[in-house]
Design a protein that fits this description.
Oligomer: single chain
Number of helices: 12
Shape: elongated
């Protein structure tokens, strides 16, 4: 009888071990993909690609027991060689190879030059060949930084006493309402893909006080713009016992401060690859919705056309205004009109035409929507009645208010949009692993 006792210790080592240990002059084994081959005659360089980066391997005639004629780019290999310091190499060291063992080979040549610093191809081609294009060093760096954003979100909220939850994505009714839902036949019942975890995260505030989730949401919008997706990752949190919606904005500010510092410390290599300059976030200005529109209109001579919402051009101008006036890439726009916010948004007690809600703009693009929620049963019923909504349609959600809820609020952050603006990309598909939009369902 054989038993498994835990993770098996391997003969091969990883980049992290080489960087942390004293391996100078020692023989090691390493596995990876052949990223590039540069044959210079008596000497050849074989660059291995691993999750942590690139490794430079040196093949010298008469010292390496292998013929380069048998080696193809993208082959999976195991190499054995001596570790030698080399400042010009990607990790500060190289392997002087003794042997190469091929583990697998590609069936055909690559359709993209993924070993180039820039692939010099269109976004459409990169997306159509996504399983291959993601192997490029710069493409990989984008999504390591995105990993850091999610990691920062999780670590910061854990430290603030939040509980991570998992909510269903097949639902009986969308939280936001409207026509932009994907409808499903769920065993002969009508169902939808969730537009937001809103109902469920509010429910869980009654259980854990503070909750968060990083998960996909779905919007059946027929937009085909550089800022819209039909499936994206939403970083959601909801917190109870708040004194006002400002508590929610303060929590997001703390998350952003924590995450930028995490990226500086642990993702320096990826930031350098993409030449990213992280924003310094000491404080974030806030401005009322109506005042923000006036400021942009006055400074940039733009007529206010829609008094109830911000148009994309207005968001850009508001972002530009606060960058010029306060040197801030971020601005909280607060007190959105009630008619443009969901029924669960709490109205401003001083002026019910507006809500205790906000958007966070980053470089002129909305990346967050949040605010304080109604928590009293009679109040939410009254607002639903004004909107001609039937309480029976969401009776399970309304149950939480029947049996008591604390004052609470929360937000949702668009992960891909935040990454896009952080990396100064022009299209949200550049920072989406496998985008889903009105024309793309594969790969």
């Amino acid at each position: 009888m054989e038993f498994l006792t835990g993770v098996k210790e391997k003969e091969t080592i990883e980049i992290r071990q080489l960087l942390e240990g004293d391996y100078q002059g020692k023989v090691v084994k390493m596995k990876g993909a052949v990223h590039n081959i540069r044959d210079m005659g008596d000497v050849a360089f074989v660059i291995l690609r691993k999750a942590q980066g690139l490794i430079q391997c040196v093949c010298e005639k008469g010292k390496t027991d292998f013929s380069l004629k048998d080696l193809k780019e993208e082959s999976a290999v195991e190499v054995m060689g001596v570790v030698v310091s080399e400042k010009r190499a990607p990790q500060g060291f190289e392997l002087r190879l003794k042997s190469i063992r091929i583990l697998s080979e590609p069936f055909q040549a690559l359709p993209l030059a993924i070993n180039k610093w820039k692939m010099n191809t269109s976004l459409e081609t990169k997306l159509a060949l996504r399983p291959v294009s993601l192997r490029n060093v710069r493409e990989r760096a984008k999504f390591k930084i995105q990993e850091g954003i999610v990691r920062g979100f999780r670590e910061f909220l854990f430290d603030q006493g939040f509980t991570e939850i998992r909510t269903p994505k097949i639902v009986s009714r969308g939280a936001e309402g409207g026509a932009n839902v994907f409808k499903l036949n769920y065993f002969n019942q009508k169902a939808e893909l969730g537009q937001s975890p809103q109902f469920y995260k509010q429910t869980m505030v009654g259980v854990y006080d503070r909750v968060f989730e990083a998960a996909p949401v779905f919007r059946a919008e027929k937009h085909n713009t550089t800022r819209h997706l039909n499936e994206y990752i939403s970083l959601d949190f909801e917190m109870g016992y708040i004194d006002g919606f400002e508590d929610v904005m303060a929590m997001e500010t703390g998350f952003l401060q924590y995450t930028m510092e995490l990226l500086r410390q642990d993702y320096k290599k990826e930031l350098e690859i993409l030449d990213v300059k992280l924003p310094v976030i000491e404080k974030i200005p806030q401005v009322r919705f109506d005042k923000a529109k006036e400021l942009a209109a006055e400074k940039y001579s733009r007529k206010i056309r829609n008094p109830f919402d911000l148009e994309p051009e207005e968001e850009l101008l508001i972002g530009r205004y606060f960058k010029e006036e306060y040197d801030s890439d971020f601005v909280f726009v607060t007190h959105y009109p009630s008619k443009k916010r969901p029924f669960y948004a709490m109205d401003d007690p001083e002026d019910s035409r507006f809500t205790l809600s906000f958007d966070l703009l980053y470089k002129g693009l909305e990346i967050t929507t949040g605010g304080q929620r109604i928590h009293e049963y009679p109040v939410i019923l009254e607002k639903m009645e004004k909107r001609n909504m039937d309480p029976a349609d969401i009776r399970d959600y309304l149950m939480i208010f029947q049996y008591g809820m604390p004052p609470h609020g929360g937000l949702g952050i668009g992960l891909e949009r935040l990454t896009m603006k952080l990396l100064d990309e022009q299209n949200v598909r550049e920072t989406t692993l496998f985008p889903r939009d009105v024309t793309r369902l594969a790969p």
